[in-house]
Amino acid sequence: MAAYLARRLIQSVLILLGVSFITFLLLYVLPADPVRQIAGRAATAQTVENIRQQLGLDQPFLVQYGRYLGNLLHGDLGRSYLQKTDVAELIWSRLPASLLLMAGGIACELVLGLTLGVIAALWRGRALDQGLMVGSFVAVSAPQFVVGLLLLYVFAVRLGWFPIGGYGTFAHLVLPALTLGILGSGWYSRMMRSSMIEVLRADYIRTARAKGLDRARVILRHALPNAILPIVAMIGIDIGIFMGGIVVVESVFGWPGMGQLAWQAIQRVDIPIIMGVTLVSATAIVLGNLLADLIAPLVDPRIKLR
Amino acid sequence: MTDVTASATKAPAGALRRLLRRKLAILGLAIIAVVVLGALFAPWIAPYAPEEQLFDGLTLEGAPLAPDATFIFGTDLLGRDLFSRMLYGAQTSLVIGVVANGIALAIGTLIGVTAGFFRGWIGGGLMRLTDLMMAFPALLLAICLAAIFTPSLWIVAMVIALVNWVQTARVIYTETTALAEREFIAAERTLGAGTGRILFRHILPHLVPTVIVWGTLGISTTVLLEATLSFLGVGVQPPTPSWGNIIFENQTYFQAAPWLVFIPGAAIVLLALAFNLVGDALRDVLDPTQRGRD
């Protein structure tokens, strides 16, 4: 176990190094010039050159990357070109909002997905089951900005139940979290349905029924816990999907999180912020996958760590 | 061996018949047919030119018109006929869906088969590359690339392909490694078959069903990603209409003119749904181990 963990952690660090290298390289070779953005249109060639030198952007690629890595080892993600603030500080200030949104998204997708999946499994083959499964397909086929705008229109503009956007109270969180969670709820309801159907066929369920336990008790106490476990183990993998989703959802709802920070930085070619957010996201994805792999054998002892 | 080739040639007709027995697959195919026909015949069906700002396309106050008998989907902020723009937007969605997904599928299959069949340092290296790509926040990467290039239709297609090949590569890799260990491959090798023969006559034909399924499901992912990029304003650029950028252009006004957001929104959902339904049905139909299950 310890050896496995050590190997996976080393692999993760290597992957993150690779991510940092590729992102840095992409931003280096791409045609957008950050110095032009900083200097503004009216700047003279001399000013542009001075800024370039100040930021060290006149250095060869490997020197620039080496310096970035060196700083990274000290936990320094660099300074934003345009906001003149530490990138780490900027990300740190936006992180709580995004984490709150993602927690809300996970809660929504689990509650919706698992409940609907169990209902579909119990009414298997009936109209209700078929309707729910078509619904799950719609959920995974709907782009998040369409879902977000629809929820916004119906529940905020028309019904006025929730604020139209912004951040601060629980009411602000409901619609963005729902938007983020609906996509995943489609996948979870399908997985939960097949997992539940499989468990309900198992011998120990038949035994429990044969002992004379009533149906509700068998489903709640015996089937449900066994059916849920393999699915909950997959939450780690969702993190990667959420990391993209927050950019869209935060933009639709004006949610002041990391996604907005990234989106603004991309538009202004603020390379240190883009690098920082990419690295934080990649770290979350790698850790999420590691977590999923570590949980899997706890849930199902037949799975061995390799 | 003859059995394998015989069943491989017989399978498509049977698979198609089984596919057409599923209501949801037929629904999906019907939606796809409508969108394809609309896109192909857009110049003849569209009542107006997609970029024409119509004289009577706005109210006297300059607001867009709600759907009525003249403009069945209403008009947009510039007084253009939304129905005509939707038809031309379908062309964009389909071209990107087919091109970007085709490239992604080709890259994914090539990398997956190579890594799975040759193993060794080539396979190891390719799979590490795939792991690396998995760690990238895909949407963030796509947005970043699309925003920094000046996006044309083809650049958007390339960006999507670059982000979307990873899943296919992983699936194909797993299948290829499993296939390469099967007895009939070992038997072929003992009989003296060369690498090329094994690869092209035995491995690749067995991967065809997987490629078809992932190719179909992938179009759905591609359509969604294109719509998302265009919605953020970094995808296909106006005036070329795309369902995503129609929403991007009109979203500031969506409280007053919701049809400008929800008609293209519904079209995106329906098209992605159609490819998901067909892909899912194909998976059941083409995968013999799934047969007989619910």
UniProtKB/TrEMBL annotation, chain A:
Residue ranges annotated as transmembrane are: 12-30, 99-122, 134-155, 167-188, 227-253, 273-296
**Where found, per UniProt?**
Cell membrane
- Provide the topology term for how it sits in the membrane: Multi-pass membrane protein
Domain ABC transmembrane type-1: from-to ranges: 95-296
Q: Does the keyword Chaperone apply?
A: no
GO BP annotations listed:
transmembrane transport
**Which CDD domains did the record assign?**
TM_PBP2 (cd06261)
Q: Which UniProt keywords apply?
A: Cell membrane, Membrane, Transmembrane, Transmembrane helix, Transport
Q: Which SUPFAM superfamilies match?
A: MetI-like
> Superkingdom of this entry's organism?
Bacteria
- Name of protein: ABC transporter permease
TrEMBL record, chain B:
Task: State the superkingdom.
Answer: Bacteria
Q: Which stretches make up the ABC transmembrane type-1 domain?
A: 90-279
What keyword terms does UniProt attach to this protein?
Cell membrane, Membrane, Peptide transport, Protein transport, Transmembrane, Transmembrane helix, Transport
Recorded topology in the membrane: Multi-pass membrane protein
PROSITE patterns in alphabetical order: ABC_TM1
Family, according to the entry, reads as follows: Belongs to the binding-protein-dependent transport system permease family.
Mind telling me what this protein is named?
ABC transporter permease
